[in-house]
Design brief:
This is Malonate decarboxylase acyl carrier protein. InterPro entries: Mal_deCO2ase/Cit_lyase_ACP (IPR023439), Malonate_deCO2ase_dsu (IPR009662). Its main location: cytoplasm. It comes from Paraburkholderia graminis (strain ATCC 700544 / DSM 17151 / LMG 18924 / NCIMB 13744 / C4D1M). Keywords: Cytoplasm, Phosphoprotein. This protein is α/β, with parallel strands linked by helices and 104 residues long. It has one domain: Ribosomal Protein S5, domain 2, CATH 3.30.230. The chain has two helices and six strands. Strands 1, 2, 3, 4, 5 and 6 form a six-stranded mixed sheet that branches. Strand 3 and strand 4 form a beta hairpin.
């Protein structure tokens, strides 16, 4: 199991939580929450994956995601072999769920 961390600059605070997906064969879950320090405008991503040796792929997918997303959030990704397309989909779902309200 591999544990990766990434940090990205952000422009705005995230105020709601979101949980999408499940940890299962070929899938993953994304947990998005406000940062511990609301004054620090940055996104912190922790990836726990069952597939070792793909940190460069994770970085590429996250770099692309953060060209469009500017929220300061804590993001936890628990992966069980998801493809880059599924990763991008789950991240977009988490953002949408968080932006729909505080009860996400």
């Amino acid at each position: 199991m591999e544990h990766l961390t990434f940090d990205y600059p952000a422009q705005r605070a995230v105020t709601a939580r979101a949980h999408v997906g499940v940890v299962g064969s070929g899938d993953l879950e994304v947990l998005l929450s406000p940062t511990d320090n609301p004054n620090a405008l940055a996104a912190h991503v922790v990836v726990r994956t069952s597939v070792d040796g793909y940190s460069h792929i994770w970085k590429s997918v996250l770099d692309r995601f953060f060209t469009r997303y500017d929220g300061a959030a804590q993001i936890e990704i628990n992966d069980f072999g998801a493809t880059p397309g599924v990763v991008a989909l789950r991240l977009a779902e988490a953002v949408e769920a968080a932006e729909q309200g505080d009860d996400a």
